[in-house]
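User: Before I run my own analysis I want an independent prediction to cross-check against. Here's the chain; please return only the structure tokens and, at the end, one sentence I can use as a sanity check.
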Amino acid sequence: MTTMTLNECINYLKSSDGYLLLTHIRPDGDTLGSAAALCHILRRMGKTAYLYPNPQVTAQYAPFVAPYLAPAGYVAQTLLAVDLASENLFPEGFPGGEVELCIDHHPTNSRYARRLVCRPEKASCGEIILELAQSLKLLDKTVADLLYIAVSTDCGCFVYANTTAETHRAAAQLMEAGADYKALNKLLFRTFSFSRLTLEGMIYAGMRRYGPGECVTVATVTREMMRSSGATEDDCEDLASLAGRVAGSRVSVTVRELNSGASKISLRSGEDFDSSAVCALHGGGGHKMASGCTIQAAPETAREIIVRDILEAL
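Assistant: Structure tokens:
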């Protein structure tokens, strides 16, 4: 594995072709916006580039990635991963293959790719792609819209603790480049379906608190809650932020039941607690204050396991 600077990455992108860009499982705005923006940039460079058709893309993001999805039968020469920290986060249905380059901002990146650009000081992968676009002088309105999605969603519309002055500068540069931030902010942060709001009510009603001073707040999302509220995957964006709204929470946890019977765990914390270290116990990772893992157990059991691990770490 070779660690690359941004300039070395740009030189590599210029020298290669036939790209297929990978986004991670249960894709969020950062992986999709960053990958679509990079795909657009590569095409403007005269390259053949497509996104792997991630089957878990939600309706909210589908229109933004649709122009870049690979057609059936496309044979890639170069696999490129964006915001994809480890092999166990490859998208559903991906047949495998050696990833030539990974562009990421997760400090827990497993270094699976042959080449890696990793900038853990960045709040989002979108900030890295922005630097790349600026270096190539290819920052247009399309890139600005896609990267505004990436940057804004990964910091919760600039309210999460990972937000930095650099994040705000990136947003300002994207706005100046033509990003339709008014429409995007309304779409991404101020528009919810009735089913989503019903689900939120059920989540709040079922929250539980643990530990000294009740400093650990846990929200649980079961398949039955999804069914009875009428919620779909399109309604599940940023559910992990809800538990952290409770006053006094030092660590917040969201336990979500998956169709496989396993449970997806999302941890959020302040700077004085390493969420990624706890998630690493279960093969996961991410950032110090925002991390995740999967536990092969039903929600009730998974909740007991993760709360035990958190309290031991505290």
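Sanity check: Residues 112 and 126 are 21 Å apart (CA to CA).
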